[in-house]
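Figure-free illustration: sequence to structure, shown twice.
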Amino acid sequence: MRAYSESYLEQIVETQGQLFDFVSYKFPECDTKDFIDKYMQSYTRQRIDKADAYLANEDVEDLYAWFIKLDNYSFSPGETLTGFKPKWIGEFYAYFQWYYNIPSKDVIKKVPLNFLEKAYYGLHDLDLELAVEKVGEQLEL
């Protein structure tokens, strides 16, 4: 059984990819990995894990503002992820969470960001579902 109705899936996957991309572009002096880690473990993302109708339909900037306010996030200085990587990682994590119905806070533990960053080069050209299934098979999910 998937995490929520498939009718929310495309919006959530796309918005999370755009969110991670937005942060890496808008805040190049900040640690993108820290943002991703904190977001995946946040109350905001926990609500999206259940397709909260309000948050699941937010645009990128509103979702960003919601996370900053609700989860009281402040940026850490550091290195940003560049290129298409942040968008793809965001999409991958959102789809993985839905596909395996695992809380996002556990997804980032099962599929660490450093692993996904390295695996990007072998997975990003695949269909997203196939990439998620390949990683899930490695984890024996």
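We now fold a second protein in the same way, so the two outputs can be compared directly.
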Amino acid sequence: MSKNRNSGFHPTHEGSVFKEIVKPLEKEIVISKEVNSAFIGTSLEKYLHDREIEEVVITGLTTPHCISTTTRMSGNLGFNTYLIEDATAAFGINYKGTYIDAQTIHNISLATLHNEFAIVLTTKELLERL
């Protein structure tokens, strides 16, 4: 959630509404964040520690932003972290006049996280581990 009223992620904008496919279950806990990391300014770390949860599975958007920041913090905080590559994505970026496509951004983001802060898996690979 953004505090900026002009942001698409401000609570008054459509971008802050859950899509039907990922709408929380009735008793499911929802922890909102206002910065890239899901750990900063939220109760997430305390929630996990209070329940002795040692593993974190990360999905969402976007790989070089919120996903990367949250994954790095999760690994640094000592959680066994799994980043699901086909349940995350990136957008293409213009950098100093050069366009870098979304898949390249996504792949580089995953490569910088894998085996350093998390284990990067596909959804199928994660389900096979369960």
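Summary for the second example: The chain has four helices and five strands.
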